[in-house]
Aminoacetone oxidase family FAD-binding enzyme (Hornefia porci), 377 residues
Amino acid sequence: MSGICIIGGGASGMAAAITAKKYAPDRTVIILEKMKEPGRKLKATGNGRCNLSNAECDGYIRILDFFGGIGVMTRTEESGRIYPYSEDAADVVEALRGQLKDMGVRTVCHAEVTAAEKTADGFQVSWNGGRLLADRLLIASGGKAGPKFGSTGDGYRLARGLGHTVTRLAPALTAVETRENLRGLSGVREKCVVRLLRQGSVLCEERGEIQFTDYGISGICVFNLSRFLELPEGRSRKDGFDGYEIRVDLLPEIQDAEALLARRAGTGVPADRLLCSLIKRPLAREISARAGDNLPELARQLKEFTVHPADLRGWQYAQVTRGGVPYSEIDPETMESRLCPGLFFAGEILDYDGPCGGYNLQHAWETGIRAGKGLAG
Ligand SMILES: Cc1cc2nc3c(=O)[nH]c(=O)nc-3n(C[C@H](O)[C@H](O)[C@H](O)COP(=O)(O)OP(=O)(O)OC[C@H]3O[C@@H](n4cnc5c(N)ncnc54)[C@H](O)[C@@H]3O)c2cc1C
């Protein structure tokens, strides 16, 4: 074959294939997908609802056009999050697969690409079931997050083999294991503001619902903080988070917690019940254990309940990968490599990670569409 080869049938790979075929209908486009079907991860996104973009993203209208073009109706929540109207991720996957089929894109499943080499006039791509020659190649094999959906980091090795560098990788949008044993709080959820500090300076602040678990803390607000937990060079995940702390404001609507507690004490609420109805009981017990009957200290604990990160939950729990092929090595208009002509990148393999809320899929579609045009051009 001499045509376009796409490694990975995930969000970015499918968007690229559809776009490439649209702009170059006469060219052969083939997707090599390691799993038994394309779009496995997509089906799990947004808790099965697929939060496919966000109205705060610059290019979201382009993505709505793309989906409109393949028959996917969407709706935008007040928060800005965009979902398929049916709120069923499988509908998005079906629409993409249907479009690929209608356009004549060939998808080979159970095809795990093991090597990609530059030849005189293109690329030789080998997988467990064969090999092919292509004049243009897109690596859209995702990152390392959620490996059960097929993304196990193969693309980084392929990219390095073709002359690219890969910046430091870390799991992101994931829960945080804490040094403190919080097992007694497991299952407790609280609306709060969480702040991530390093050496005393605030790096990031998020409002939302924290979930205490038997290993530490979770919830979307914690996922978003996890993107900023960075290991110093040369340190491993197990020992590198020493300078960090996470402070949880459990009463974000109340400015002066000490005055509030003093008022409650003044009305005759006994000390052991001062926290009653302010926060969940297991948390009240933990805070009482930390502060005793000391009113200022109780108030401080309510506003700055502090835990120390011991580790990030690993790849299997993470939603995205931090790090990857740097943008400086590609042309961001066409997604073509600046180092290896004919080679393109799209999606999570690139050094990009966004917060929860549709930003990561937006990036996958957007770069997939740009790469599709580049591949066709
Ligand atoms: C549980 C979960 C929920 C998420 N929810 C959301 C959400 O609601 N909104 C959002 O914006 N983001 C969400 N994300 C993140 C989002 O899914 C990813 O950022 C996005 O899918 C990345 O797209 P991609 O095309 O780069 O990679 P992927 O979608 O991971 O696709 C890569 C594909 O390449 C294939 N592949 C890998 N290696 C090879 C190989 N050697 N040979 C052949 N094929 C290979 C894989 O099997 C896979 O199908 C979620 C992630 C997870 C894990």
The mean pLDDT is 95.
